[in-house]
């Protein structure tokens, strides 16, 4: 995809999204909903939080019921609930239960994988480095640093895509083991890496290279070129692990449930660096209920799709560039200082994301409910009348 294609104003491509097609029930949430007629502006008591990629539709009613029901068993350890979650995930992805590792959020899975691969390299007296695109989600870098391992940051291309050739070169010129951390879709850009490119890269990588694929936003992907790394795990690849989360699609960020999928021998290694008894009974119960609720999953995706259309239409009208999104957030251009833009939004009780250098002049905006994004658009257009965007 060339630069012009990537950054073209994509409002026309969203025209097919029927904004009036969703039933009201599909947009229900458990907290205050911002409805333009009733609440023209967010307030200090009810700020509009669009900065952490949370799913403000709220957890599924079925998940809430499961949590409440689980409280009667809270005096027991959650072994049964954890086992049920592993079983559900294995069935969902068509792998054995030995392919699954549950984490206290996928952040713990990322930590366990990074530490396990560093330990393996060092045990074999091999130098080791972590290679990441820049910008990206920074937890792999943080966990590498805590283990005294350097991280090589490879800037994105001008199109804000992974510079695969540069990352390959960073590994090829290093005398030791390389751990690639690849967030796909990437955070903060919401771009995907073409599955064919990624598959060829992984399939032909030498034995001293390992791939950690963070697919936290995979359920929101609309680009047909995306291929989940789970497919390569199922084919027996031993140089790849995939992490996913219940924080995004399933709206369980506060309950901390994530998981890793890899071949059993890798899972056994990762488990050696995970917390013992790391699964909360209520969280596991909510996760199982969410997996068994396809109607909620569909409503969650539809809500984000509708919100995305609302925002991209406004960005088109204002002439602000944005990257086509495959996640529950949008990376869009800001005229002038991003920090000033943040402060002005905060003064309106709207909290948006920070800047992610070296991608200067861009802001990551979480997609809340359609009602919330309608309020955001109103504030954004007010900024235009004041000459701020």
Any descriptors?
two-stranded parallel ribbon, globular, seven-stranded mixed β-sheet, single chain, 389 residues, alpha/beta
Please tally the β strands and state the result. 11
Proportion of residues in β-strands = 5-15%
Average pLDDT number? 91
Query: Helical segment tally?
Result: 13
User: What global shape is seen?
Assistant: globular
Terminus-to-terminus distance? 27 Å
Order of helices and strands: HEHHEHEHEHEHEHEEHHHEHEEH
Strand order of the largest sheet: 2-8-7-6-5-3-4
Oligomer: single chain
**Poorly predicted runs:** 1-39
For the biggest sheet, the summary is: 7 strands, mixed
- How helix-rich are the residues, as a percent range? 25-40%
What structural class do helix, strand and pairing data support?
Answer: alpha/beta
- Nearest-angstrom radius of gyration? 21 Å
């Amino acid at each position: 995809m060339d630069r012009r294609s990537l950054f073209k104003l994509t409002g026309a491509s969203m025209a097919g999204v029927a904004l009036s097609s969703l039933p009201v029930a599909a947009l229900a949430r458990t907290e205050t909903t911002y409805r333009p007629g009733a609440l023209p502006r967010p307030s200090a008591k009810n700020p509009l939080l669009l900065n952490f990629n949370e799913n403000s539709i709220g957890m599924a009613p079925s998940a809430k019921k499961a949590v409440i029901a689980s409280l009667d068993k809270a005096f027991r350890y959650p072994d049964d609930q954890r086992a049920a979650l592993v079983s559900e995930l294995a069935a969902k992805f068509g792998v054995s239960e030995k392919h699954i590792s549950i984490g206290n959020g996928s952040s713990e899975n990322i930590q366990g994988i990074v530490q396990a691969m560093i330990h393996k390299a060092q045990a074999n007296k091999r130098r080791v480095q972590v290679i990441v695109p820049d910008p990206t989600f920074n937890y792999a870098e943080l966990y590498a640093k805590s283990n005294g391992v350097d991280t090589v940051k490879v800037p994105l291309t001008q199109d804000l895509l992974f510079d695969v050739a540069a990352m390959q070169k960073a590994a090829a010129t290093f005398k030791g083991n390389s751990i690639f951390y690849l967030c796909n879709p990437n955070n903060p850009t919401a771009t995907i890496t073409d599955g064919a490119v990624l598959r060829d890269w992984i399939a032909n990588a030498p034995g001293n290279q390992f791939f950690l694929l963070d697919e936290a936003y995979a359920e929101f992907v609309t680009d047909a070129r995306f291929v989940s790394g789970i497919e390569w795990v199922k084919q027996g690849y031993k140089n790849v692990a995939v992490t996913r989360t219940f924080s995004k699609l399933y709206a369980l960020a506060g309950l901390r449930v994530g998981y890793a999928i890899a071949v059993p021998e890798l899972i056994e290694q990762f488990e050696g660096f995970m917390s013992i008894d790391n699964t909360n009974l209520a969280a596991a119960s909510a996760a199982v209920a969410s997996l068994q609720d396809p109607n909620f999953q569909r409503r969650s995706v539809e809500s984000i799709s509708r919100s995305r259309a609302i925002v991209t239409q406004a960005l088109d009208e204002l002439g602000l560039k944005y990257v086509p999104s495959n996640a529950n957030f949008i990376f869009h251009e800001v005229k002038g200082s991003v920090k000033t833009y943040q402060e002005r939004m905060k003064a309106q009780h709207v909290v948006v994301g920070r800047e992610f250098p070296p991608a200067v002049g861009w802001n990551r905006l979480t997609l809340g409910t359609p009602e919330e994004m309608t309020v955001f658009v109103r504030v954004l257009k007010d900024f235009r009348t004041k000459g701020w965007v």
